[in-house]
């Protein structure tokens, strides 16, 4: 639930951790959210669970998984967790098996993990760095989708949500290769949605703008970075993870039953056309 706070004339939103919401449109559904122990992924996991889903949390570090699960369980939500580095096939297999054995199926897959190991001009990017970004951001999303398809095909209302970025449309300065990977995800969403439509599996993307998380600190923390960010954001503020998680819940729910292959941009009005 979002509350409005005004600081120095600027409107911010803060969230309160309501354990249940009156909107229970995901009741009876099972969701997997990758990279869900912090930031946007954590907020998506919480929101899906608040709307009634059973949610499998995961990320690379066990300590983070435990902390996130403990927090959400203490809020009365139905979640469990497992370690999963999305770039490791064994980890992805265990995530699949754990979801099957714990919840017996899957209705919602949110592919949220991404890395950006460097801040540099495109042609300063070393081959290994290019490979790492494409491996985690693009290839792992593709493999995760492919490996979870048999489980999703058993669902009556399967939905895949991919976390792209507004950088997919308008590359961030010095984040060129990351931006390219996010454009590839928009294309993956479009291409796979066409193939999976006849199976009844919807695939959609979210393209957040600059959202207040650890990942995006370099884009807003210093005065200079904040000034550049504000020059691009019509709404003149950084977004919050909770302003993305509601979109994920919508795309995962039957409220979006006639939407597939689309990307929803939530960026406070940044430029977002290819
Ligand atoms: P964040 O706050 O830094 O959270 C990162 C999460 O990812 C943590 O839970 C981390 O936990 C996990 N993680 C990192 N590498 C992983 C891997 N290889 N496998 C599995 N889990 C991994 O990041 P965020 O800002 O929420 O970003 C989430 C997604 O939103 C990314 O796809 C990002 O590109 C996208 N996005 C973010 C923004 C923004 O401004 N924040 C804007 C547009 C798009 P562990 O350390 O335990 O693995």
Description of the molecule:
The chain has a domain at about 40-50 and about 105-265: NAD(P)-binding Rossmann-like Domain (Rossmann fold), CATH 3.40.50. Helix content is about 40%, strand content about 15%. About 45% of the residues are buried. Helix 4 links the parallel strand 6 and strand 7 (about 160-165). It has a 7-stranded parallel β-sheet, sandwiched between helices. Strands 1-2 form a two-stranded antiparallel ribbon. The protein has helices at about 40-50, 60-75, 90-105, 125-155, 175-195, 225-230, 240-250; strands at about 1-5, 10-15, 30-35, 55-60, 80-85, 110, 160-165, 200-210, 265. Helix 1 (about 40-50) crosses helix 7, helix 3 runs parallel beside helix 4 and helix 4 runs parallel beside helix 5. The protein has about 270 residues and is α/β, with parallel strands linked by helices. It has 7 helices and 9 strands. NADP nicotinamide-adenine-dinucleotide phosphate binds near residues 41, 60, 84, 113 and 214.
Core attributes:
274 residues, alpha/beta, Rossmann fold, seven-stranded parallel sheet, two-stranded antiparallel sheet, 7 helices, binds NADP nicotinamide-adenine-dinucleotide phosphate
